[in-house]
Specification:
Elements lengths: L2 H10 L2 H6 L5 E3 L2 E4 L11 E4 L4 E4 L5 E2 L1 H9 L3 H12 L8 H29 L4 H9 L4 H6 L3 E3 L5 H8 L4 H6 L3 E3 L7 E3 L4 E7 L5 E8 L8 E3 L15 H7 L5 E5 L2 H9 L5 E3 L7 H8 L4 E4 L5 H4 L1
Parallel strand pairs: 12-13, 12-14
Antiparallel strand pairs: 1-2, 2-3, 3-4, 4-5, 6-9, 7-8, 9-10, 10-11
């Protein structure tokens, strides 16, 4: 079984989902806890970290990842554990073709580019490169803590600011374009330019906490569209991702329900009021893929879209 295939499964399946299906977990701070499945106990000492995708028992000192859990707790062999996770992830279990190995390698390069872009946006905001973005953050009552927690940043008003930064980090233009960070000119194929310019940037994470795309909010009423999301890429699909799901799982002590709202700002505003079981669709369209992901996290899903026609529809 190629290591690249195992890495692919680890990126697709959440350890919380697998462990919780066999050991009832309870949210405790940013982690989850339960009575240890390795020995009898009355006080929970078994902890699962969604950040690290790892479990640890403080009494028995047992620890490991999603594979070791299936092997040691469920009693599967390693190949059986791989087979079960492949089925859960919807991935066919077989030796990878050259094309599939290339796809995994490409995804890793895209993740590197997106993480560097996130760092670039955060750095721009921290340096106060535009007074208008600071003014907008203050107008919307976004706290400094929220800026940090949600990784907000700023895309400078420059056609090649991010492009030049990524180039200095040895990211190829092909990867920049494939990640959706840079646009290839329709008029001149050799010309590329930054997709996001003069926007407040919201990183969009997958359920594992990896940044897979961005949403950018304009600072000038003259610019359109108001919100600009990443295009469809090998990592990002608007119909599948939910803004804030990772933070919902990370910060909600107990998830009795999930509140589904329209936008990034709604999620952040509710977080600041202590309501952390909240996610946002990237627009008003809610898909079967969204519902499938949400139903694995909570039994009750409450929709709270804006009261305009689009929200009601």
């Amino acid at each position: 079984i190629p290591q690249s295939f195992i890495d692919e499964l680890l990126s697709r399946v959440d350890v919380i989902d697998v462990v919780d299906s066999r050991v009832k977990l309870k949210k405790t701070g940013k982690n989850y806890s339960a009575c240890c499945p390795f020995h009898n106990e009355n006080t929970p000492s078994f902890t699962v970290s969604p950040d690290k995708q790892f479990y640890h028992c403080f009494s028995s000192n047992k620890h490991g990842d999603i594979f070791t859990f299936l092997v040691e707790v469920v009693g599967l062999s390693f190949p059986e554990a791989v087979e079960q996770l492949a089925e859960l992830a919807g991935v066919e279990l077989r030796s990878l073709t050259k094309a599939e190995e290339y796809k995994i390698s490409l995804n890793n390069q895209l993740i590197d580019a997106i993480n560097l872009a996130k760092e670039f946006f955060i750095l721009n905001l921290s340096q106060g490169n535009n007074s208008r973005v600071i003014e907008y953050i203050n107008q919307r009552d976004i706290s400094k803590n929220s800026v940090k927690i949600h990784g907000l940043g700023y895309a400078i008003d420059n056609y090649s600011g991010l492009k030049d930064f990524l180039k200095s980090k040895n990211i190829s233009e092909e990867i920049m374009v494939s990640s959706g960070l840079v646009i290839q000119s329709e008029k001149k194929e050799s010309q590329t330019y930054d997709r996001y310019r003069n926007r407040l940037m919201f990183p969009i994470s997958n359920p594992m906490g990896k940044t897979v795309g961005f949403g950018g909010r304009v600072l000038s009423s003259k610019d359109n569209p108001k919100y600009l999301n990443s295009p469809e890429t090998p990592l990002f699909s608007k119909s599948k991702e939910l803004y804030g799901l990772y933070h919902c799982r990370k910060y909600s002590r107990r998830i009795d329900y999930i509140l589904v709202v329209e936008g990034y700002m709604d999620v952040i505003a509710l977080h600041q009021q202590g309501i952390t079981s909240v996610v946002a669709t990237l627009g008003t369209a809610t898909t079967p893929a969204h519902l499938q992901v949400l139903s694995r996290s909570a039994e009750t899903i409450v929709f709270c879209f804006d009261g305009d026609k689009a929200g009601r529809d």
